């Protein structure tokens, strides 16, 4: 399995970064590169740093790290939506290379810390010194320009920014976005040429995605006046848990580069406090996104609600109820974690075990929750979850995602972060330590 994972990463390597897959995702994706760097650290540590540094070379002047960095060697039309759709070249402060204007969960500081911890060296320390100010700028962008609700949490302006594109968590806010599925006739979707349409977001989903991007693009991707003009504004538990984990990781990195860790610890504590105050629902015992358009929590119970378990300073009462949710019939199997977590509540009427983020199991969010279990002294559950994750790849290979009950591989084969995080799981000792 280690050879399979290493060969998958090697086959997806593209001169200075790793593509998620050769078929469906031919460019560089932001949070994919973060997870992939964690895997490279186990087999080719120098590539872990090249992966992160190539991504951050495309960082915008305001600190945002774009969710797609386009490969200029590929022809126009090789992917939808491509660089001509985003038109980043027209925006002041964008890099010279074409990118999208959105972001993704800021997993990068955590990836840098883990890459260094897995393979410390003088070269790794030098790379960390180069990356540190860029990681700080990324966090500053999210904490200031994206603090749309004014409560200390970052707001996502598109479902793609959450990483869980078509999660049922976004159904209610998306329903308020005016769009007609017929708009997609003007575009050519590449995803359904490489994966079954029943496994992918619908045309109506995509029409709304396009409408939201158009709104943000026509405003020059600026964030100052989002409440007055933008149709999708949500505080996401996973996104903000990633921001909090990033601050904890930066507090570990700071002494290595001669910086003060205290501001990072303070910001991490503030993010955790805001998450509990704003997004924790005591009625469900889990975390729910908040739609800033309505001011209400979104009731769908998805894997997003388990993500704050990654935070080492999550208060014990919330950590306990989130673990109970993870072990419930909605996500786990009693107390054994014998199956990987699905992306949506198994018992919900809109659970779809084949369709992207509406039910299938994904290696990255399972890895994320497993790290949280370790950090909150539930190594017993983490061990069961790790076995079930390794079992997915043993059965189906390094697929993009998996049927949550049968383990059948779905989406793209030879998927980058599945291979990378498998390497991380296989490298764990008998008594794995929390990541932060």
From TrEMBL:
Domain Mannosylglycerate hydrolase MGH1-like glycoside hydrolase residue range list: 25-418
Stored InterPro entries: 6-hairpin_glycosidase_sf (IPR008928), 6hp_glycosidase-like_sf (IPR012341), Glycoside_hydrolase_63 (IPR004888), MGH1-like_GH (IPR054491)
Keyword terms, alphabetized: Glycosidase, Hydrolase
Annotated family: Belongs to the glycosyl hydrolase 63 family.
Organism: Micromonospora musae
One Pfam family cited in the UniProt record for this chain: MGH1-like_GH
Name of the protein in its database record: Mannosylglycerate hydrolase MGH1-like glycoside hydrolase domain-containing protein
PANTHER family assigned: MANNOSYL-OLIGOSACCHARIDE GLUCOSIDASE (PTHR10412:SF11)
Lineage of producing organism: Bacteria, Bacillati, Actinomycetota, Actinomycetes, Micromonosporales
């Amino acid at each position: 399995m280690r050879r399979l994972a290493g060969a998958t990463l090697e086959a997806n390597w593209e001169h200075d970064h790793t593509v998620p897959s050769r078929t469906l995702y031919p460019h560089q994706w932001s949070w994919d590169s973060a997870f992939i760097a964690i895997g490279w650290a186990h087999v080719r540590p120098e590539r872990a740093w090249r992966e992160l540094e190539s991504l951050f070379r495309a960082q915008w002047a305001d600190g945002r790290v774009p969710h797609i960095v386009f490969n200029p060697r590929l022809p126009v039309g090789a992917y939808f939506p491509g660089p001509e759709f985003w038109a980043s070249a027209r925006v002041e402060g964008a890099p010279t290379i074409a990118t999208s204007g959105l972001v993704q969960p800021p997993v990068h500081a955590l990836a840098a810390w883990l890459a260094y911890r897995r393979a410390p060296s003088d070269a790794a320390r030098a790379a960390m010194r180069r990356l540190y100010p860029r990681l700080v700028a990324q966090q500053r962008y999210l904490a200031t320009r994206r603090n749309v609700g004014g409560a200390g949490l970052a707001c996502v302006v598109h479902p793609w920014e959450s990483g869980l594109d078509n999660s049922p968590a976004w159904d209610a806010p998306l329903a308020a976005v005016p769009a007609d599925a017929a708009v997609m006739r003007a575009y050519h979707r590449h995803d359904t040429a490489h994966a079954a349409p029943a496994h992918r977001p619908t045309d109506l989903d995509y029409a709304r995605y396009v409408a939201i991007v158009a709104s943000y693009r026509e405003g020059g991707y600026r964030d100052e006046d989002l409440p007055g003009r933008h149709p999708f504004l949500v505080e996401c538990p996973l996104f903000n848990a990633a921001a909090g984990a990033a601050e904890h990781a930066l507090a570990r990195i700071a002494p290595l580069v001669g910086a003060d860790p205290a501001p990072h610890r303070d910001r991490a504590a503030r993010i955790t406090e805001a998450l509990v105050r704003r997004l924790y629902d005591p009625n469900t015992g889990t975390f729910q996104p908040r739609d800033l358009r309505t001011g209400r929590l979104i009731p769908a119970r998805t894997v997003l609600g388990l993500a704050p378990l990654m935070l080492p300073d999550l208060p014990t009462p919330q950590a306990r109820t989130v673990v109970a949710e993870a072990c419930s019939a909605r996500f786990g199997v009693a107390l054994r974690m014998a199956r990987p977590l699905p992306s949506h509540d198994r018992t919900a009427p809109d659970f779809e075990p084949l369709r992207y983020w509406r039910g299938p199991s994904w290696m990255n969010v399972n890895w994320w929750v497993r790290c949280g279990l370790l950090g909150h002294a539930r190594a017993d559950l983490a061990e069961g979850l790790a076995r079930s994750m390794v079992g997915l790849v043993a059965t189906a290979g390094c697929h993009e995602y998996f049927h949550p009950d049968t383990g059948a591989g779905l989406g793209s084969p030879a998927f980058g972060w599945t291979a990378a995080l498998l390497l991380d799981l296989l490298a764990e000792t008998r008594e794995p330590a929390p990541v932060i």
